[in-house]
Specification:
Blueprint lengths: L1 H8 L2 H8 L8 H14 L3 H9 L2 H15 L6 H14 L3 H9 L2 H12 L6 H14 L26 H6 L45 H4 L9 H4 L45
């Protein structure tokens, strides 16, 4: 990520856009390497903004359509995928998604994907195009008046400061369906050196609605009958009163059989009749 920002400041993004171009059977290896490098550089938000400002989203779409139309035998699928990877990297930022929609990218990728469905070897192109279209498709409101469930379940613990309590304490006229989490993607100021470990920050997020006290999570084990009623079954179920700490449960040696005096007599079932 540090190298990508440094190279971007020195004009490598503009240089690579001079290398890649419309369909040509010459220097296809160079084209493939240039696209892979460009896709890696555009993962930097600074480089992605620079590409959007110079109108390179429209250039990438034009190049992709040109290769799609001329590569009838599908020999250059990797180059076509490389162009899509560059578009995918640019659309990671909100400005790139807007430029993609303004350049009619949704219709272009949809139509080209439809033409690729019949060829199994082009599945990577369809998959990447689908990811880009899903990411850039405008967000619509859920067709629901509220996200609150029609059924209320009695939860054992609902922290007062947790999101569940906050949701159910909202007034009835408050719209809780709209998600504005995507509106401020680019509002925050960023440092020039970007790290690739942004996803690790979410791992330290603490959810207040998750109970962490083990004692509260353990179910209470209560007997269905009192111990006095269960004593009649003691000879059948010695675990009711036996102290197993004195037993050698680890030893694998067979123990000698010692006849029990209690088992010499007849077995009496307590619940049977006198007969």
């Amino acid at each position: 990520a540090v190298n990508a920002v440094s190279l971007g400041k020195n004009g490598v993004v503009e240089l690579l856009f001079k290398i890649i171009g419309p369909f040509s059977k010459k220097n296809t290896s160079l084209m493939k390497v240039a696209l892979d490098t460009l896709a890696a550089l555009l993962k930097s938000k600074t480089n992605a903004r620079r590409a959007v400002d110079r109108g390179y989203v429209q250039v990438l779409l034009t190049i992709y359509v040109d290769w799609h139309g001329h590569d009838s035998r599908h020999r250059y699928m990797l180059i076509r995928k490389g162009v899509l990877q560059c578009i995918k990297s640019i659309t990671n930022i909100k400005l790139g998604r807007k430029a993609f929609i303004d350049a009619n990218g949704m219709k272009i990728l949809y139509n080209t994907s439809q033409e690729c469905l019949a060829v199994r070897a082009l599945d990577p192109l369809v998959n990447t195009s689908s990811l880009i279209m899903r990411k850039c498709f405008p967000k619509n409101r859920l067709p629901l008046p509220t996200i609150k469930s029609a059924f209320h379940f009695q939860l054992p613990v609902i922290p007062a400061s947790g999101p569940v309590a906050q949701l159910y304490n909202l007034p009835p006229d408050v719209d809780d369906v709209v998600d504005e989490s995507d509106d401020n993607d680019d509002a925050e100021t960023e440092s020039e050196i970007e790290t690739e470990n942004d996803d690790d920050k979410d791992q330290h997020f603490k959810n207040d609605d998750i109970e962490t006290d083990i004692n509260k999570l353990k179910p209470r084990q209560e007997l269905g009958r009192s111990m006095e009623e269960l004593k009649m079954y003691e000879q059948f179920f010695p675990e009711l009163s036996e102290n197993f700490q004195e037993w050698d449960l680890v030893s694998k040696e067979p123990k000698p059989f010692v006849p029990d005096a209690n088992l010499s007599g007849p077995i009496v079932v307590p619940t049977a009749s006198e007969e």
